[in-house]
Amino acid sequence: MVTDPQLEEILAGLERADGRGALQSAILALRKHFAIDHMVYHWVDSGGLQQGCGSYPRAWVSRYQERGYLRVDPVVRGCFQRFQPVDWKRLDWSCRAARAFRAEALRHGLGNQGFTVPVRGPNGQFALFTSNHSCDDESWARFAAKHRRELILIAHDFNQKALEFAPVCQHAPDKALSPRERDAMSLLAVGCSRAQVAARLSISEHTLRAYIESARFKLGALNTTHAVARALSHGLIMV
Questions:
Q1: Of the candidates 164, 169, 180, the residue with the CA atom closest to the CA atom of residue 232
Q2: For position 116, what pLDDT does the model report?
Q3: Which residues of 86-110 are buried (b: 16+ CB within 10 A; e: fewer)?
Q4: How far is CA 112 from CA 21, 102, 137, 158, in A?
Q5: Across-strand partners of 98?
Q6: Mean pLDDT, range 95-124, rounded to an integer
Q7: Which end of the chain is more exposed for a tag (fewer CB within 10 A), N or C?
Q8: Distance between CA atoms of 108 and 68, rounded to whole angstroms?
Q9: What residue ranges define each of the domains in the chain, with the CATH number in brackets?
């Protein structure tokens, strides 16, 4: 329950929002209320289409889409495997692509700290609600501890309102997944490694690879992460 009068007023405005422009106004008001550099709502659909609103610089948003950074963004990849909010320091930034991505984001004006709430809606809908700021680790830890509960509630409220303006869902692929393919995709969706999935299904990793590749082909996906996203969005698997 929100008890801050100013925040209550902003959320009341969010409830009255009648279009995406109103969502943008609401998220900018939230950013100002929490006194941080950026706040962003990011929706990714099964086909890779990205929508959202927030305060990231337009140059960075355009660069992100042009370069296809959805495929390497540790925040998207990490939160897709989680159901709980995550501090960016807990994500894997060790590979060269992730480090280069982070360096470019900082050059475009993003902060070095982040707290992201993953949100899942009906039919596998997946979105992220992110708070981003430039400060030291101790200051950010205090901010996250103080506002964690509020940010989680706001993320789900924001997503619920955004669903009202969502485009019509795409039709599911013509080729249905087999029971084994659904099992494999479901376990990958909840964050199991390939070795764990193979052990759970009592099959070899070689056989598992065949199931994954078959599912990926049926779903028209570019890679395994994309295949899981498409399966969730089309309601072919449940997590």
A1: 169
A2: 97
A3: bebeebeeeeeebeebbeebeebeb
A4: 28, 9, 9, 24
A5: none
A6: 90
A7: N
A8: 16
A9: 5-163 (3.30.450.80), 179-233 (1.10.10.10)
